[in-house]
Automatic annotation (TrEMBL):
Keywords of this entry: Membrane, Transmembrane, Transmembrane helix, Transport
Protein name: MFS transporter, DHA2 family, multidrug resistance protein
GO molecular function: transmembrane transporter activity
Residues annotated as transmembrane: 55-75, 87-105, 111-130, 142-163, 169-190, 202-221, 233-250, 271-290, 302-324, 336-355, 361-379, 475-492
Major localization listed first in the record, in broad terms: membrane
C-alpha cells in the first residue's frame, strides 16, 4: 500500500510531463504556419518586400532542420533537462524578439532563433514523452505525437487569423510565450536531471558539410529571383559553396566508416523510397499553405479571420483521416493506401487549378479538404512502410533522417514555389499589359480623378490578375511533384509476416 501511495504522485507527474511534451510539440509546430494569415500586416510593419515573404517560413524551417540532427547529441552532452529548458527559453526569446522587430532582417533573425529552438524541442519532446510510458505502450505513441505535429501546422493560420483580427499580429507571437513558460515550469518540477554516462560520437564533419550545402542551396533559392540568379556574384558564390559542401559530404559518406547518415539506411529499399515519398509529402504540405493564405489575404483581400478559417477544412480532413488510418486493418496492403493517397492529393491540386478571382470560399474549402484527406492517408502509411523492413537497431537513426526529409521538403518547396511565383507574376504582367489598348473595356472601368491615378489603378489591377494566375500555376508544380513520385510505389516491397 505504501508503494502504491508513493507511486501515485510519480505516475501523475509523468502523465503531466507527457502532456507538456505533447503541448510543446504542438506549440513549435503551430508557429511554423501561424504567420500565414497575417503576412500583409507583418510586411507593412517591417517594410518587407513581397519577394521576402517566403523567408518567414523558410528561415524557421531551415533553422529547425539544422538543429534537429544534433539535438540528441546535445542532450547526451549537457543533459536532457538542461537542453530542453534551454531550447524552450530560446524559443520564448525568439517569440519576444519577433514582436519587437522593425526591419525584415530583424524579423528573419527572430524566426531563425525560433527555428533553432524548435529543432531541439521536437525530438526531445518525443524522447521525454516516450520515457514516461511503459515499453509496451511506446510503439503506439506515434499516433498522438503525429497528430500534435499535424494539428499544429494546419491550425496555425486559423489561430493566427483569429487572434490578429481582434488584437493585432504581435499578439500572434505573444500568445505562445506563456504556454512555453508553463512547459518550462513543468519540466523543472517533473523532469529528472540526468545525463548520459558517456557522450556518443557524432560526425561533425558530415553534419557540417551537409548543413552548409543545404543552407547555401536554400539561400540561393530564396535570393535568386531578387539577385537575378546567375547574373549576380553572390548567387555564384552560394552555388559553388553548396556544390563543394555536397561534394565533401558524399566523399565522406563513401570513404568514412562512420558518418552522419549511415550507409546501412540506404540499403533498405522500402526506407529509401519512403523517405523520398515523405520529402514529396513535405514539398506539398506547407507550400500549399504558403500559397493559399497570401492568395486569399493579399490578392483577394479577405480579412485575417477568414483567411485563417479557410484552412480549417484542410485541417479537419488531414487530422481526421490520419486518426482513422491508425485503425486501418493490417490485412490491407499499405502500398495501395500510399498510391490512393498520392492520387487524392493530385486530384486536390488539380481542383486548385480551377481557382478564379470570381469564386467564393467554397472551391478553396473543398480542394483543401480533399487534399487534407490525401495527406492524412499518406503520413501514417508512408511512415509504416519506411520502417516495415528496417532493422530495429537502425530505427532511431532512421527516424531522424525520415523527419528531416519532410522538413527539407517543406523548406525547399516553399523556396521553389515562391521563386517561380514572382518570376511568373512578372511574365504574366508583361503579357497582360501588352494586350492592353484604349479600346479594352478594362481601361474604361477604371475611374480616377487624374490620368496618373488612372494609370496607377490600372497597373494595380493588372498586377493583381498576374499574381493570381501565377499562384494557380504554382499549384501545378505541387501537383507534378506528386505525379513524379507515384511510380515509386510500384517498387515498394510488401513486408513479410514477421514485420
Amino acid at each position: 500500500m505504501n508503494a502504491g501511495a508513493a507511486g501515485t504522485p510519480a505516475a501523475g507527474a509523468l502523465r503531466t510531463l507527457r502532456y507538456a511534451a505533447l503541448l510543446a510539440t504542438y506549440v513549435q509546430s503551430v508557429n511554423v504556419s501561424i504567420p500565414n494569415a497575417v503576412l500583409r500586416f507583418i510586411q507593412a510593419s517591417t517594410s518587407m518586400a513581397d519577394d521576402q515573404a517566403g523567408w518567414i517560413f523558410t528561415s524557421y524551417l531551415a533553422a529547425s532542420a539544422i538543429s534537429m540532427p544534433v539535438a540528441s547529441w546535445l542532450a547526451a552532452r549537457f543533459g536532457v533537462k538542461t537542453m530542453y529548458q534551454a531550447a524552450l527559453i530560446l524559443f520564448i526569446v525568439g517569440l519576444w524578439i519577433a514582436t519587437c522587430t522593425t526591419t525584415p532582417l530583424e524579423f528573419m533573425g527572430a524566426r531563425i532563433i525560433q527555428g533553432v529552438a524548435a529543432g531541439i524541442i521536437a525530438p526531445l519532446s518525443l524522447s521525454i514523452a516516450l520515457d514516461t510510458l511503459p515499453p509496451a505502450q511506446r510503439p503506439t505513441f506515434g499516433v498522438p505525437y503525429g497528430a500534435a505535429v499535424l494539428l499544429g501546422i494546419v491550425s496555425g493560420p486559423a489561430i493566427g487569423g483569429l487572434i490578429a483580427e481582434y488584437h493585432g499580429w504581435h499578439t500572434v507571437f505573444y500568445s505562445s510565450i506563456p504556454v512555453a513558460a508553463v512547459i518550462v515550469g513543468v519540466a523543472q518540477c517533473s523532469l529528472e536531471r540526468k545525463k548520459a554516462p558517456t557522450t556518443p560520437p557524432f560526425d561533425f564533419f558530415g553534419y557540417g558539410t551537409f548543413t552548409v550545402g543545404m543552407i547555401m542551396l536554400q539561400v540561393l533559392l530564396d535570393r535568386g529571383e531578387r539577385m537575378e540568379w546567375f547574373e549576380s556574384r553572390e548567387i555564384w558564390i552560394e552555388a559553388m559553396t553548396s556544390t563543394l559542401a555536397f561534394y565533401l559530404f558524399f566523399t565522406h559518406v563513401l570513404t568514412a566508416k562512420t558518418h552522419f547518415l549511415g550507409k546501412h539506411l540506404f540499403k533498405d529499399r522500402n526506407y529509401v523510397l519512403s523517405t523520398i515519398l515523405f520529402f514529396a509529402f513535405g514539398f506539398v504540405l506547407l507550400p500549399t499553405l504558403a500559397l493559399t493564405s497570401p492568395m486569399l489575404d493579399e490578392i483577394l483581400g479577405y480579412p485575417p479571420i477568414t483567411t485563417g478559417g479557410m484552412t480549417i477544412p484542410r485541417g479537419v480532413g488531414l487530422v481526421g483521416t490520419f486518426l482513422l488510418m491508425t485503425r486501418m486493418p493490417p490485412l490491407i496492403d499499405n502500398r495501395l493506401v500510399i498510391a490512393s493517397g498520392v492520387a487524392v492529393v493530385i486530384y486536390a491540386n488539380w481542383l486548385m487549378l480551377g481557382y478564379s478571382p470570381l469564386m467564393d470560399w467554397t472551391p478553396v474549402a473543398v480542394a483543401g479538404f480533399v487534399q487534407g484527406v490525401g495527406m492524412g492517408m499518406l503520413m501514417p502509411s508512408i511512415t509504416k512502410m519506411a520502417f516495415s523492413t528496417l532493422s530495429p537497431t537502425f530505427r532511431p537513426e532512421g527516424t531522424g533522417l525520415f523527419n528531416l526529409a519532410r522538413v527539407y521538403g517543406s523548406t525547399l518547396g516553399i523556396a521553389i514555389v515562391q521563386a517561380c511565383f514572382y518570376n511568373n507574376t512578372q511574365a504574366m504582367h508583361l503579357a497582360l499589359a501588352s494586350h492592353l489598348t484604349p479600346y479594352r473595356s478594362a481601361v474604361h472601368s477604371v475611374t480616377a480623378s487624374t490620368p496618373l491615378q488612372a494609370v496607377g489603378a490600372l497597373n494595380e489591377m493588372i498586377t493583381g490578375q498576374a499574381a493570381f494566375i501565377a499562384v494557380v500555376d504554382q499549384f501545378k508544380i505541387l501537383m507534378l511533384a506528386m505525379v513524379v513520385v507515384i511510380p515509386l510505389v510500384v517498387f515498394l516491397r510488401k513486408p513479410g509476416p514477421a514485420n
